[in-house]
């Protein structure tokens, strides 16, 4: 089996920019593209396989009809979604539900996610958590629009990593380029959107009651036990191993040999270029390349100078 290289799906956003073109060389339809859904089987943006025996197949259909490619998993839907986000402007302050609330109220999974900061302009920051001690206090501060009192702001720089479990109030700030690994869900509850308007003069919908319902109170700051192992001049960083996904960074300087640690592996090159070698076959990869390594690929090698963010399904 070959790696499954995937065609990007672009999403226009009010806060989007043009870095998906200037940094990754993608041919964009306009300069307001906020997201590249790099690996997705979500109905709002389904990836298409670009090579091999499944060329032209949509990922959701491949998952449905050829579960053996993924190790015959039990999930009905492909559980992960990988995105690259270009925040030319601030994203809305938002929160996502957990699986129980999402399935009950939206008919889809909840949304736990994590971020690897590909790049960030000086002074960039994110919203990450809140200061309310009770749900009643949270509701009151939202009602009174006490955003500076309610929200926690965290400075960010290139190479930072953040875990954003469901229930976490958060927002990516302007000037940040991020690789996001998340559950396959598109449910977002907006708490605050800076009162901005779209091209037609309309403000975007807020979801105040849902946000109050699903926010974790008091806020929890997850502890990350990040581990790094060296392999010659290259390295493997383990950022997360959770029930939702496991996330790794492969920092390649020359060569890096890898073996599978999950039923299948998702990978996106976020910087540099080189080759992915599988069963003696070499595939050129560069910043922006995304693929899935199917279940029957036991090992592979990366050659070149590149940084890759990879993920496998949760424990």
UniProtKB/TrEMBL annotation:
Supply the EC number(s): 5.3.1.8
What superkingdom does the record give? Answer: Bacteria
Keyword terms of this UniProt record: Isomerase, Metal-binding, Zinc
Active site positions, chain numbering: 190
Keyword set includes Zinc: yes
Looking at the record, the residues that make up the Phosphomannose isomerase type I catalytic domain are 5-102
In terms of InterPro entries, this protein maps to: Carb_Metab_Reg_Kinase/Isom, Man6P_Isoase-1, Man6P_isomerase_Firm_short, MPI_cupin_dom, PMI_typeI_cat, RmlC-like_jellyroll, RmlC_Cupin_sf
Alphabetical list of NCBIfam families matching this protein: manA (TIGR00218)
UniProt cross-references to PANTHER family, sorted A to Z: FRUCTOKINASE (PTHR42742:SF3), TRANSCRIPTIONAL REPRESSOR MPRA (PTHR42742)
**Occurrences of domain Mannose-6-phosphate isomerase cupin (ranges):** 236-312
Name of the protein in its database record: Mannose-6-phosphate isomerase
Regarding protein family, the annotation reads: Belongs to the mannose-6-phosphate isomerase type 1 family.
> Which GO molecular-function terms appear in the entry?
mannose-6-phosphate isomerase activity; zinc ion binding
Residues binding Zn(2+): 96, 113, 170
The cofactor required is: Zn(2+)
Q: Please share the entry's free-text remark on the cofactor.
A: Binds 1 zinc ion per subunit.
Task: Name the GO terms of the biological process aspect.
Answer: carbohydrate metabolic process
Q: Which organism is it from?
A: Enterococcus florum
The UniProt record lists the keyword Translocase: no
Which catalysed reactions does the entry list for this protein? D-mannose 6-phosphate = D-fructose 6-phosphate
């Amino acid at each position: 089996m070959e790696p499954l290289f995937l065609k990007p799906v672009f999403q226009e956003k009010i806060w989007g920019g043009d870095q998906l073109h200037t940094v990754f060389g993608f041919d964009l339809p306009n300069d307001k593209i906020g997201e590249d859904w790099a690996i997705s089987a979500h109905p709002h943006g389904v990836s298409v396989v670009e090579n091999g025996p499944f060329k032209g197949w949509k990922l959701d259909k491949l998952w449905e009809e050829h579960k053996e490619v993924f190790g015959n998993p039990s999930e009905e839907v492909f559980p992960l979604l990988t995105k690259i986000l270009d925040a030319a402007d601030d994203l809305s302050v938002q929160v996502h539900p957990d699986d129980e609330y999402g399935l009950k109220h939206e008919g889809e999974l909840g949304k736990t996610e994590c971020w690897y900061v590909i790049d960030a302009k000086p002074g960039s920051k994110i919203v990450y958590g809140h200061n309310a001690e009770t749900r009643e206090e949270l509701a009151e501060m939202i009602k009174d629009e006490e955003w500076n009192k309610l929200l926690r702001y965290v400075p960010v720089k290139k190479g930072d990593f953040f875990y954003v479990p469901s229930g976490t109030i958060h927002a990516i700030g302007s000037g940040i380029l991020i690789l996001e690994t998340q559950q396959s869900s598109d449910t977002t509850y907006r708490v605050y959107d800076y009162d901005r308007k779209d091209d037609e003069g309309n403000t975007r919908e807020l979801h105040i009651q849902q946000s109050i319902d699903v926010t974790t109170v008091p806020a929890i700051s997850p502890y990350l036990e990040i581990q790094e192992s060296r392999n010659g001049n290259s390295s493997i960083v383990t950022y997360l191993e959770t029930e939702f996904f496991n996330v790794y960074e492969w920092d390649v300087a020359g060569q890096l040999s890898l073996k599978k640690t999950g039923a299948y592996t998702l990978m996106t090159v976020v910087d540099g270029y080189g080759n992915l070698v599988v069963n003696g076959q070499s595939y050129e990869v560069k910043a922006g390349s995304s693929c899935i390594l199917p279940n029957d690929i036991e090992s592979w090698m990366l050659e070149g100078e590149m940084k890759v963010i990879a993920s496998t399904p949760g424990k």
